[in-house]
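cron nightly-structures :: item 1 of 1
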Amino acid sequence: MVNIPIIPPATEIHTELLPDISQTWKVGQVLNATVERGGENLDKILLRIGQQILESKTPLPLKTGEQIKVLVKALGEAPLLSIITQPTTAQLAASQLRPFINQQPDWKPLIDIALKLLAGNQLPAIARPVLQNLIQQIPDAEQLSQPNILRQLIERSGVMLETHLARRQDVNIEKDFKALLQQLDKVLQSISPVAGRTSHSDQAIRLIETYIRNPQLPLPVLAQELGALINPADMRNLLTAIEAKRFDTPLTTAVVQLFAHIQKQQGTAALEQLLRLISDQNNIGELKTALTNAVSHISQQQLLPLLREADSALLLLFGLPVRHDNETHWINFRIEREKTSSAQAGAGWHVTLNFDIAALGPMQAKLHLQGKQLTTLFRASNNETQAKIRQHLPLLQQALQRSGIEVLKLDVVAGNIETPQPIMTNVHILDEQA
C-alpha cells in the first residue's frame, strides 16, 4: 500500500477539479480509479475517480489506462490516498508461510537420542547402520577450522540438497545431512507405525480389552499396535505412573490389567518380553519425533530467506553439529550480503554465529567483512565465558592477520543472547513424504 498525497492542480492541466470532491469520502473508504495520465516515480499524474479528475503525485510508476484501487487515509484540504497494490505470487506465498515458520526445533536432540540408543544397543538392527552413518558425518572442531572442509560441510548442511539435485551436481549427496535424515525416516517407517502427537486412549483401552478376552495377537504385534495408539511421551509417563502405583486414569488401569493378565496366563518371561518390546517401540517413537523436528528445522532454514520482502540481499541460514570432547555441540550460521547501489564498491558481508555449548553457556559472534577488513564482536551469556574469550582474542587476532585479514575491531561483551521466537511444536511446515 503506497500513499499518494493530492496536490493542487498545475495551471497547464485543463481539467475540471472540484475543491469539495473529498467531502463525500470517508476515511477507510476504497475507491476505484483509472489512471488518465501515467508517469514515473514522483511524477504528476491524473486520476479519474467517478466523474472527477484529480491531479497528484505518486511514488509508484503508473501507466495510462491502468485500473487501480485507492484507500482514503485522511481528509482535509489535501486528502491522502493510498494505492492498494496487488501482492505478487512471492508475497502471497510469504504471507501464507510466515505463521508456520515461526521457529522449528533444531536437530541436536536427534543426535543426543541417537547416541543414547546406539550406546545402549536399543535399536533394531536395520536402523543401526543408517544412524551410525549419520553420526559419522558429524565433523570435529579441527575439521571446521579447515576452509576446504568447512565449504564441503556447508554444501552438505541440508539447505542446498534440492538445488544440487535439480542441477545434478555431484557433491556427495549420500553425505548430505537432509538426505541422511530422509533415509533414516524411510527405515524407521518400515519398522513399525508410531503414534502421532496425540494419543488415542479410548482405542488403546478397547485394544487391551479385546486382547484380554481373546489373546490371539503375538506380543510383538501387540506392542506395535499399542505404540501406534499411545505416543512416546504419554507411554513413558504411563509406565512411570504404574511403577509408582498411581492408577489415576482409565488407560493406566487398563495397562495394569493387561500386564497382570499376561503374567498370569503366559508367565513373567512373557511380561518382560512385552515390556522390552514397548521400550523399543518407545525409543523408535522418540527418534521419529526428533527426526521430524530435524527435517522441519532444515526446511525452515531453506524457506526463511524467501520471506524477506523488498530485500534482495543474499541470505543463507544453516546449522552444523560439531563433536568436541565426546560431546556434540551446535553452531547456527547466518550469512548475509549487504545491499549496495551500483555506484558503490563490492558489498560487505554480515555473519552471525550462535554457539550451543553446555559448559560455556550460549555464545554469539557477529562479524562484518568488507574486502579484507574485519570487525568481530563476541557476546557471552556469563562473565566467566567472557573472560575466557577475552583471554584468547590475541591468538585469534594473530591468526587472522597471518591469513591476510585486517582486523579493525575484535572484542567481547557479556549480555543476553538474542533468543529465537517460541517454537511451534504442533505445526510442521512441510510434509517431506508428499
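cron nightly-structures :: done
The CA atoms of residues 46 and 161 lie 51 Å apart.
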